[in-house]
Amino acid sequence: MNNSPRAANGRAPDVFRPGGWIPMRCHDDEDEVDFAIVGTGAGGGTLACKLAEAGFSVVAFDAGPFWRPLEDFASDEYHQQKLYWLGERITGGDDPVQLGSNNSGRSVGGSTVHFQMVSLRFGPDRFKARSRLGYAVDWPIEPEEMWHYYDLTEDALKIAGPVSYPWGPPRRRYPYRQHELNAAGLVLARGCEALGIKWAATPIATLSAPRGKSPPCVYRGFCKFGCSTNAKQSALITWIPWAIKAGAEIRDLAMVGRIEVGRDGKVTALHYHRQGEWRRQRAKNIVVAGYAIETPRLLLNSACPQFPDGLANSSGMVGKFFMVQSNHAVYGTFDEEIRWYKAPPSLAITEHWNYTQTGKDFPGGYAYMSQGPLPIEWADTVTGQRGLWGIELRHEMAKYNHQAGLKIVGEVLPQEKNRVELTDETDDLGLPIPRIVFAYGEEDRKLYQHAVRFMSAALEAAGGKDLWSAEDTAHLGGTCRMGTDPANSVTNADGRCWDIANLWICDGSLFPTVAGVNPSLTIQALAWRIADRIRDLARRGEL
Amino acid sequence: MSEVFHRRYPTYDVLDKWDSPSWNGQTRTVVKQRLEQVPPRRFLTETEWEILAAICDRLIPQPDRGDRPVPIVPFIDEKLHENQGDGYRYDGLPAMREAWRQGIHAIEEEARARWSGGFRELPHNQQDAVLRAIQHGDIRSPAWEGLPAGRFFSSLLLHAVVSVYYAHPAAWNEIGFGGPASPRGYVRLGFDRRDPWEAEERHEQ
To answer: Which residues of B touch A336 (CB under 8 A)?
Structure first.
């Protein structure tokens, strides 16, 4: 199936029925559609749905296949690597980032097909990090506005979470009830209670009760490898079918390689590779939503005589301020059986260190959550961090059911020198491949060192023995930051490029800062806001 | 040196669930292929294959499985044949296929630089000493030129070996992993709670 697109000829896969189809409006390459969107994940998928619902003609492209989870997803870590972006990339700098399975998807629905579903809000002050907390930069959007879109997004995805969430300003309850905690989550709770800080059931995008054609979660635990229950509210089973119903077209297995610019300096068409040939789709507006590596890669690969440094890059900021989140962990062995392979991996959380400013020696914030790695991931952690192999490794791995751990999503501050750039090497399609250059800053190191100290105390208090810590990164951000000044940002607050009025960006690359929370909910809320802004601008004749 | 592996879950075989609601059709297809259609040699030379097999025997010794060890080299060869990487490579490392060819050759040369023979001819303790030195970047052979030894060992070699081994049902059994779990999933989630279809741990006296 990897070579033949499924979404074509007036129909698209029905994600809820093995072998099923739903009707889909299709466009000719020659149709000048209102919006051509590159990417169908948290950013592009949400935007495609909302723009189609607003009455625009939309075609959204994805390099990956269009899965039907009920028939395509095996309960198997090794096989499900098919969900990841495995095209070649070079990773460098003082602290090279692991890519592939760690932070990127190649499917209709993008990384949400294999994300862990943790759905958190930025604390309001984090949108104004510079003016309220004295570090990094402000977002060009007011916190109240983002929190309004969080309300909408959480309701659209039926996020399961507590009736009363312990952190942040008063908010309404989560739309679906929280999930029962597994033992791995109860370990986190024990540790927090022993150290006197609050904890909660993690707000999570998998159903705790039926919804439409989706049953509730069955606690199978393979969330990072695709949900074959269809309980996970990924873009693949929410925004995408909603978008198609509203009239959008999705083109799977369609890799966009270049954006074409007309004589007037506006973008006119996309060049994409599908079924063995390069094709050209005309569009009045183009939105790039390929996440923090593919988005700048496409803009840089689209350099042309008018824009020799790449599109939307007069500031020189395309590819700059690349961010990840620190993802450090502490693990220990418990007398009890934990069996952490059961249920979504991160069912319990504390955001204490996102909301307190006392007792810390760094400006950013972090959340930490319970863990549930499956065997290959766990073996990779044990070998990668501790260098174990031989019979010693097999013995260590045999403790699997007695392990528990705590892991952060930590804020990494934006630094201009961390970046995505093009190399001289090309991929199978002849497109230059990217190099990602990353190094932690001093404040970033203070943050994860603090977290490792604190989590060690918490895990020990919870009964953990033989503790050890591990380093990792998660998620991506930055590289096309939005802002208020065309001299140091790529787009305005609407994701509209300063240099080219009909070129837009809608994904995590817009983030000026990443905060200490998983990015997916914020990307979706931001995409919804951008769609509303586009609708309003169109009504005023300002597109 | 004796190597012994005691099973914690002696009565558990994840394959017993094959026809149960814990396994669905697509999972059976994938696992059946892994068990029954072990890939043939297509990328590595015969010599490279044999050296790699000797290396894998030290990275994941399987003294408990007699002449039926979990196959590892065939799946690494498959990955190389398909040229399917992990989605990134470290700056300064050659492309995946070249790195493996050079790395296997360099391990052989490192063995010769330290001891009297090639890797396959060495006793286990000397093989382990070679691998440990390479892991820590303590190398003597010029065959490593252009290939950072420690990075090759951890990010390519060991990563690939454990990814293959812990993808095998026999490895799931020995760690008590529930294995495939769709459509049924699990019910009992708390401390010391076990569904009847999960592995039962042997408790020592």
So the answer is: 191-192
